[in-house]
Amino acid sequence: xxxxxxxxxxxxxxxxxxxxxxxxxxxxxxxxxxxxxxxxxxxxxxxxxxxxxxxxxxxxxxxxxxxxxxxxxxxxxxxxxxxxxxxxxxxxxxxxxxxxxxxxxxxxxxxxxxxxxxxxxxxxxxxxxxxxxxxxxxxxxxxxxxxxxxxxxxxxxxxxxxxxxxxxxxxxxxxxxxxxxxxxxxxxxxxxxxxxxxxxxxxxxxxxxxxxxxxxxxxxxxxxxxxxxxxxxxxxxxx
Length: 239
Hints:
single chain; alpha/beta; five-stranded parallel β-sheet; globular; 10 helices
């Protein structure tokens, strides 16, 4: 199993759709945003967090952790080798939860309890992926895309918050600062996500080929398929 990472609004959904259309041999596992973004007991957990992070950070991060651990442990057993999961328990911790801790959204007690859950549910239970694929783009670019998609619950997101998340993603995926050694040793394929893959078919073709080659290298003798994709096979519209 491989994991796709990147800041909010970076274009993970578009990239996964690209792979589904032009690399169907790669199994795509999409993020369960519905588990926390929409209505639970008459409330949007994600919306509540953005509006009042100090009140909802612990609830939000433990809920997302439980959801992602359940998915991760299932797919690490049942998914085929060439599977790509959108976001993970690792970015949930090293980017979102850590940012919340630094910004003072957790009380001291909440953070200690959260860390105990992290150690038990993630580091002791989840098997690290074969590789990460990191979609890298500026926070300004991600913020513009987030505003364009206008997803319910994200109205209160600020550029400052996007800049903070960008910095944490860079520490997680590039410099590997403060990362558990079991996770830090996992290789990363970095792709420039400032490019509009819906319009630039040549770059889109190159990225599909790079992902296939990266997976083939990590899987080894297990078959993935040749990493050759002609740009002419792509259409101009990825939806």
